[in-house]
Amino acid sequence: MQLVFFVTTLVLLALAIFAFQNPEAVTVRFLVWRTSSSLAVVTLAATASGAFIATLLGLSARLRRWRRDRTIGQPSAKAAASPPVASAAAPDPDHP
């Protein structure tokens, strides 16, 4: 966990240094939208968007895993409805 915190801190520090060294205005075009802003703001917005999308994907995987683990402990409806099957094995001669 400390490694993740350390790497995240380094990435954010590098992003902040990049943003402060590149204050010039840039124009961003996406489909019909067009906006002009500083490169620092665009970079921070892109990083925040990527972190948000990664969080959503991680949450989705965690939710699927939680649902799978929750259903493993429960018998299925088909198995619960069927009567138990008696064993047709021959009696053990050592045990009466």
Annotate the secondary structure layout.
Blueprint: H1 2-21, E1 25-30, E2 33-38, H2 39-72, H3 77-81
Antiparallel strand pairs: 1-2
Helix pairs in contact: 1-2
Distance between the termini: 58 Å
- Count, helices: 3
Q: Helix and strand string, N-terminal first?
A: HEEHH
Radius of gyration: 29 Å
Low-confidence stretches: none
Structural class: alpha+beta
Give the total of beta strands. 2
Describe the oligomeric state of these chains in a short phrase. Answer: single chain
Rough outline? elongated
Strand order of the largest sheet: 1-2
Summarize model confidence as the mean pLDDT: 78
State the share of residues found in helices, binned by percent. Answer: 55-70%
Estimate the strand proportion.
5-15%
**Main sheet properties:** 2 strands, antiparallel
Number of domains: 1
Give an account of the 3D structure:
With 96 residues, this protein is α+β, with helices and mostly antiparallel strands. The protein has one domain (2-73). The protein has 3 helices and 2 strands, in the order H-E-E-H-H. Strand 1 and strand 2 (33-38) form a beta hairpin. Helix 1 runs antiparallel to helix 2 (39-72). The model has no long low-confidence stretch (mean pLDDT 78).
Brief rundown of the structure:
The chain is an alpha+beta fold and 96 residues long. It has three helices and two strands, in the order αββαα.
